[in-house]
Amino acid sequence: MASSTLWWSLLLLVVVCNGGGAFGKRILADDQQPGFDQNYVITWGGNHVSFLDQGREIQLSMDNSSGAGFSSKLVYGSGLFHLKIKLPNKDSAGVVTAFYLSSNSNNHDELDFEFLGNVEGMPISLQTNIFTNGQGNREQRIVLWFDPTADFHDYKILWNPYHVVFYVDEIPIRVFNNLTSNGVEYPSQAMNIIVSLWNGESWATNGGRTKINWADAPFTAQFQGFDVDGCAQGGSGAGSCASPGLWWNAGEYKELTPSQAAAYERVKNDYLTYDYCRDKARFPVLPPECSIKNT
Ligand SMILES: *[C@@H]1O[C@H](CO)[C@@H](O)[C@H](O)[C@H]1NC(C)=O
Hints:
Layout: H1 2-17, E1 40-44, E2 49-52, E3 57-62, E4 68-72, E5 75-86, E6 95-102, E7 110-116, E8 125-131, E9 140-143, E10 153-159, E11 163-168, E12 171-177, E13 192-199, E14 219-224, E15 229-233, H2 258-270, E16 272-275
Antiparallel strand pairs: 1-4, 2-3, 3-14, 4-13, 5-10, 5-14, 5-15, 6-7, 6-13, 7-8, 8-9, 9-16, 10-11, 11-12
């Protein structure tokens, strides 16, 4: 464990210092972050929301009467979407904390981070999923190499014309390339940023067999970092949000740097616990993107 922690520290240093994929300078420093109200609005469970630090931190809570959620005021056609999140601690089996992008349409596009709470002491799984044109079923799950309930960590979704990359801190944990030229659909509809803390006991932990322990309620999750690095849109398509003038569309964000790619390989080898592309029982014919190198 100690050597694994050291490995991650060194890797993080390499990834950050190499500049490539170091979003540090692109994202506003913590003390320059705007208050919640600038870009976001509470969408449900308003009496289960607390504003801390003059609106620079939000706490959602869930008990057996309600969870809560918030959403961006605007929709975006590309960007690097990021939040700092501290997850519910104690026995959080069945409690789901979600941070995702979603279009408000029938055949919707969606990019998901879903943290699946667990029995105290057991690892919290981080599930990612990608919907294109209403079609999801692209789940992957990893376990995290740290305790996400102890501190805030950075979770980011890069969505540009070249790829979607999910990051945990500076480490890529999932890449979905724009393979439209290979006939694979790619998210192209403008999306809201959505966050929620909700009751997922029907599916989230041990396939839904482990239910919520209400004795440990309320469950709380905290969020910080409400600046949005996104291409805001009035319409429904990504259109001009593909402009190379937007920093997240620039050449350095077209593909992973070598150190990011190495980190991503390590995640796939050591932390990936479920990959739809390897689930032949579920998909006798695997989806087309599974047979194309997708890094
Ligand atoms: C995906 O890539 C194609 C070119 O292969 C491009 O025309 C399209 O705009 C890209 N999609 C998005 C949403 O940027």
